[in-house]
């Protein structure tokens, strides 16, 4: 009997993204407003024991990969303890971390020892002043120290997530590509998404990722398609001739990758989200202690998971079949 988590479109789900907090020490322009965010009180955030209970159930249904996100996951106290708990669950083979890198350098070694195998570091500019502008106060020196610590302790692969924004960081495409030539990193350019935006402001910053390949050609570099770096999910991957690393293009808007989506999301306040973009959620906290009830909720979530998220329709101002979420990316976990 096939015990895997399969939706009605035949997509097998073996990957769970777990948001461990909705709080963050930065206020990136595409993720959170500068002020006015209301964070969940501690009692509404899932405990380590609750997260463990959910993962144990899903591991028996074929979930093998976990990614810890936020907010900023490293503002959650004793995160290394949670990693150790989850890495000990039978069936879990891989635990990744998505972080802004500010607190990563002093904790990288302990995270690696606890069971984190790979990291994604958000880095939208290589220029200190611009980085501070995009993040509303972030110190790029701490992020770069976190990157160096990640290389030192042996996270593999190490990916840099770059949200490409027209008029803000699109003139740094060449700088990021050059990093892949010099270091064994994967730089992933990500299209600006309309997550949690109740206005049209995101459109003014949206830039299709064809700009990356165009810039590569302008610089005289030959980029060839390459096999995906482990855990690279929806990214289309390229390597410049002679480069030590690679780069990827993630097109959630212009060329959605929903047909291969293998992930479910668990928000910090205990909601299962079958799709990042839509408002549908199922709260799992009330089912903790009843493994069958947890399974039923995830199966319900899979049953309503849409074939695709229709962000392209949002860009074109066309009608959509579902209601887009108003939750910010930091409240969902990305």
UniProtKB/TrEMBL annotation:
Residues that, per the record, bind S-adenosyl-L-methionine: 30, 71, 122, 193
Keywords annotated in UniProt: 4Fe-4S, GTP-binding, Iron, Iron-sulfur, Lyase, Metal-binding, Molybdenum cofactor biosynthesis, Nucleotide-binding, S-adenosyl-L-methionine
Q: Which reaction does it catalyse?
A: GTP + AH2 + S-adenosyl-L-methionine = (8S)-3',8-cyclo-7,8-dihydroguanosine 5'-triphosphate + 5'-deoxyadenosine + L-methionine + A + H(+)
> The organism sits in which domain of life?
Bacteria
Pathway it works in = Cofactor biosynthesis; molybdopterin biosynthesis
Cofactor-binding details, from the entry = Binds 2 [4Fe-4S] clusters. Binds 1 [4Fe-4S] cluster coordinated with 3 cysteines and an exchangeable S-adenosyl-L-methionine and 1 [4Fe-4S] cluster coordinated with 3 cysteines and the GTP-derived substrate.
Instruction: Region Disordered: list its residue ranges.
Output: 315-334
Q: Where is the composition biased (Polar residues)?
A: 322-334
User: Quaternary arrangement and interactors, per the entry?
Assistant: Monomer and homodimer.
Q: What does this protein do?
A: Catalyzes the cyclization of GTP to (8S)-3',8-cyclo-7,8-dihydroguanosine 5'-triphosphate.
- What's the protein called, per UniProt? GTP 3',8-cyclase
